[in-house]
Write a structure and sequence with these properties.
seven-stranded mixed beta sheet; 2 helices
Length: 131
Amino acid sequence: MSKDEVGKTFRALNRTRGTILCERLEVAASMAAKSRGLLGRDSLAPGAGMLFENGGVLPLMWMHMFFMRFAIDIVFLNHDNRVLRINHSLHPWRVSSVVFGARRALELEAGAALRSGTAKGDQLELAEVSP
């Protein structure tokens, strides 16, 4: 995300399936927000999620579930927002797949990917939601 997108909320639309993957994606913009992620929360509200950008030099991403209190779906995207991999219902104290080529990761309520029909290879669009 660019600096002008910090603090904004996005919607993840699955253009391939014509469905909404997530209504409200909170951007983890700062290093502190990326480190904290969803820690300390008891759940995710239906339709809510968090968007992480790969700010590193390596073209790969992975996420951990250490100290988490609930399972989530993690959807990994490339630079064109095409789905590279989905970890469905990843439970606390687990580690996600290491995904080469990932530039973004969406952490969503468990079951969100299945409900929207989202699959590897689908094209997503991240659209800003009005405040």
